[in-house]
Design brief:
The protein is α/β, with parallel strands linked by helices and 379 residues long. It has 10 helices and 18 strands. It has 2 domains: 92-256, Alanine racemase (TIM Barrel, Alpha-Beta Barrel); 263-378, Beta Barrel (Lyase, Ornithine Decarboxylase, Chain A, domain 1), CATH 2.40.37.10. Its cofactor is pyridoxal 5'-phosphate.
């Protein structure tokens, strides 16, 4: 279970913020960054801004030397505001408007993701001479939050995309992939690295030398189940790189998001209602003042099961269905696999949802049903 730091406990006790809120402990984020940097010293860290773009987090990471994986011009502007320079920013979205590429280029950004020739052509027109890396598809097996086929191309197609970039005056820089978010298998990178090495060899035969492999994200947060250490991932990835690339090692990049900030955050919420649907119903419904639309979108299909703490956790437990407060029937968090909560839980009780530092505030951007977007405090 993710840590409940003393600093977060003290903040909630002393400030007593009204309504649901996220509290992030920056010390945890700093420790995570240093753990990645120590474990993979020859790999550049590009924090995935989308995971949590709080200015305080970006500033702390920029001061530590982090680079930034951005999905939009707005995220680039956030990274610049935090102190990053253009050479520490990647435009990692494979789906970009040409005018946004032009804006990024004017800001000094020279590193772009692609997965097809049409995207290459946009970059060649408005960002001449830039470096491009081609994202390839990965099956995401063993990931708790697998990614779809939306991003990436078949590995067999990548050499043509990269050669097209080369012929248009861009630098065919490398290959990227993503093994799926919340990836608990330390060996999940091996097959993708094998494919990347094959692309490097094919490009060399075409007279083009690639330089970089972007290992993507996938590094997990500890939720209800234990996850391997950063050190275990680093060792497994290093072993695979050596196995597939031999002595001709590429530059490497990682893009941790969830694995950087997930364990640093806790959401305080409140029980709004406890009820049953019939007189003989064996399972209670517990409604919180936060749900899918308030920041817990990753409970979709119950993919992410967050640890929930209450002041009554020493009491007898029974399975419950947990739902959010909105007037939308999909705003149910856990029903397929009910969640054990104390039988003594009451309306008005406070609950703490841990491991919520990533992908919560960013999924709570609209005041659906008039409920305010999730408030956040970074301490």
């Amino acid at each position: 279970m993710p840590p409940m730091t003393a600093r977060i406990r003290e903040f909630l006790r002393d400030r007593r913020p009204e309504g649901p809120c996220l509290v992030v402990d920056l010390d945890v984020v700093r420790r995570k960054y240093l753990s990645f940097a120590r474990t993979m010293p020859d790999t550049r860290i590009f924090y995935a801004v989308k995971a949590n773009p709080a200015p305080e987090i970006l500033k702390a990471l920029a001061e530590l030397g982090s680079c930034f994986d951005t999905a939009s011009v707005a995220e680039m502007q956030m990274a610049f505001a935090a102190g990053a320079t253009a050479d520490r920013i990647s435009f990692g979205n494979t789906i970009k408007k040409e005018r946004d590429i032009a804006t990024a280029y004017a800001m000094g950004v020279r590193l772009y993701a692609v997965d097809c020739e049409a995207e290459v052509e946009k970059i060649a027109r408005v960002a001449p001479g830039s470096k491009v890396f081609c994202r390839i598809l990965s099956d995401g097996a063993d990931a708790e939050w697998p990614l779809s086929r939306k991003f990436g191309c078949d590995p067999e197609m990548a050499p043509s995309v990269l050669e097209h970039a080369h012929r248009l005056g861009l630098e065919a820089y490398g290959v990227s992939f993503h093994v799926g978010s919340q990836q608990r298998n330390t060996k999940a990178w091996d097959a993708a690295l094998a494919a990347a090495a094959g692309i490097f060899r094919e490009m060399a035969e075409r007279g083009i030398r690639l330089k970089m492999v972007n290992l993507g994200g996938g590094f997990p947060t500890k939720y209800l189940n234990e996850v391997p250490s950063v050190e275990a991932y680093g060792q497994a990835i290093t072993d695979s790189i050596l196995a597939h690339f031999g002595n001709d090692l590429p530059e490497t990049i990682i893009e941790p998001g969830r694995g950087m900030v997930g364990e640093a955050g806790v959401i305080k919420a409140e029980v709004v209602l406890i009820s049953k649907k019939s007189a003989d119903d064996q399972v209670r419904w517990v409604y919180l003042d936060i749900g899918k639309f308030g920041g817990l979108a990753e409970t979709m299909d119950e993919a992410i099961r967050y640890p929930i703490l209450t002041e009554r956790d020493g009491d007898a437990m029974e399975p419950c269905i947990i739902a959010g407060p909105t007037c939308d029937s999909v705003d149910v968090l856990y029903e397929k696999t009910p969640y054990a909560l104390p039988i003594s839980l009451e309306i008005g009780d406070e609950v703490l949802i841990t491991g919520t530092g990533a992908y919560t505030t960013t999924y709570s951007a609209v005041a659906f049903n008039g409920f305010d977007p999730l408030k956040a405090y970074v301490i």
